[in-house]
Amino acid sequence: MKKVQLPLQTANLIVGFMVWVILSSLLSFIIEDINITPQQAAWVTAVPVILGSLLRIPMGYLTNLLGARMIFMVSFILLLPPVYYVSIANSFIDLLIGGLFIGIGGAIFSVGVTSLPKYYPKERHGFVNGIYGAGNIGTAITAFAAPVIAGKFGWSFTIQLYMVLLGIFILANFFFGDKKEVKVKTPLIHQIKGVYKNEKLWIFCLFYFITFGSFVAFTVYLPNFLVSNFGLDKVDAGLRTAGFIATATFLRPIGGWLADRFHSLILLMFVFGGFTVSALLLSFAPSINLYATGCLTIAICAGIGNGVIFKLVPMYFQKQAGIANGIVAAMGGLGGFFPPLILTILYNLTGHYAIGFMALSQIALASLIIVIWMYYHDKLALSDQVLKTTPLGMLVTDKNAKIITVNPAFTEVTGYKAEEVVGQSPKILSSGKHTKDFYEKMWESLNENGFWQGEIWNKRKDGNHYLEWLTINAIKDDSNEVIQYAGVFSDVTNK
């Protein structure tokens, strides 16, 4: 039963996303029967994203509480009425109301990313979540297939076919869903309190807002835009949109796979660098070929970025993965809600989309800077953790041999607290047992070899002498100039 969960839940996501984008994929057909303005059309395509985003937070929590099987079944049952309602819609309000509840199809994303890691070891979480995230291909299936079917049988009948698909997967989850999934019953408010003060959560929200948000935004925005701006026919526009979706979708598991093997933050540097350049290209309103190049680059970056981010979230939030996944996923969904509306408003005001794409470029550039900061901050944090937890005494001096910092083990061995020695010379520890010639040879070795190692008698704060095994390393910059000295020692008096 456990082996079935990855393919079953991935198929569930495909179906959910197929339903989620049904309005945007068929909008060019719907507006032939229902008279709506371009502004209203933007709302029709954006509204499903609202519920599909906000519901992801409770979805992640409820999955831990009730299990993926129950949440998938209930979600698909709840989708049946709005899908039918949209299929018989005859006004803008009908499309708006039905579209809002169709958003449930996008909310189920949080279910799999919360449930599936329970079945696999940590070193495979990136790839597993990437495979599940490839369920995004459901948007491509609808973008390509729905217009073809609607061209032959009409958009209303096409939408009603989705009710049959939902029925099949309600039964599939009933029979094949895992009834014995491990449950987590930590109260929601406790989980939220455990994560909301962590700045990493909101940084990941920003990253996913861009990567997944751009994926959703281009998915709902491209079909109608390609028809109206470049004069493509509806099936051609659907095919190109499906290509965008398929590229981003198939690269998502590759992004997770890469994150399992390489440093995730370095991968995100390339992702946001690509976003910055491609969005800048789109802001110049290029020809259809250059526009396709820019969109393809965004698809590549979005796919890889999505996979990488959902490797990072459980790494930083192991105990609150359900709620953290839900919040990050919700922000990604909202990232798909605002851009189509903003682009439409800007187009109505200026007559082009340049400002909107330029804004995406600048936000991506800001994210690139944040990723670089996180990378070096984590390296410093790791060094600080090593300094604090190692059982060996450590002290670092500047090039003039003035103490900059010491660790807790230094205090334990010598009796001196950090505030008592910072700014002092290491001579404060001198026992007086060694000759001047001993120290001259020590410095000679440091200058010639870059390190010195040996036994040395020093004096504790209480005046007692002790023997230590000491290693001193000269730390140099890129120009080979000494900038600091680091000493590591252990008390070997008893030995």
From TrEMBL:
The PAC domain covers: 452-495
Task: Kindly list the residue ranges recorded as spanning the membrane.
Answer: 12-31, 43-63, 70-89, 95-114, 126-149, 155-176, 201-222, 242-259, 266-284, 290-310, 322-347, 353-376
Location of this chain's protein in the cell: Cell membrane
For membrane topology, the record states:
Multi-pass membrane protein
- A Gene Ontology biological process term: nitrate assimilation
Q: Which PROSITE patterns match?
A: MFS, PAC, PAS
Pfam families on file: MFS_1, PAS_9
Query: Which ranges carry the PAS domain?
Result: 385-425
InterPro entries reported for this sequence = MFS, MFS_dom, MFS_trans_sf, NO3_transporter, PAC, PAS, PAS-assoc_C, PAS-like_dom_sf
Extract one GO cellular component term from the record. plasma membrane
Is the keyword Signal in the record? no
In terms of domain of life, where is this protein from? Bacteria
Keywords per UniProt: Membrane, Nitrate assimilation, Transmembrane, Transmembrane helix, Transport
Q: Which residues form the Major facilitator superfamily (MFS) profile domain?
A: 4-379
Q: Which GO terms describe its molecular function?
A: nitrate transmembrane transporter activity
Q: What is its main location?
A: membrane
Give the UniProt family note.
Belongs to the major facilitator superfamily. Nitrate/nitrite porter (TC 2.A.1.8) family.
How is this protein named in the record?
NNP family nitrate/nitrite transporter-like MFS transporter
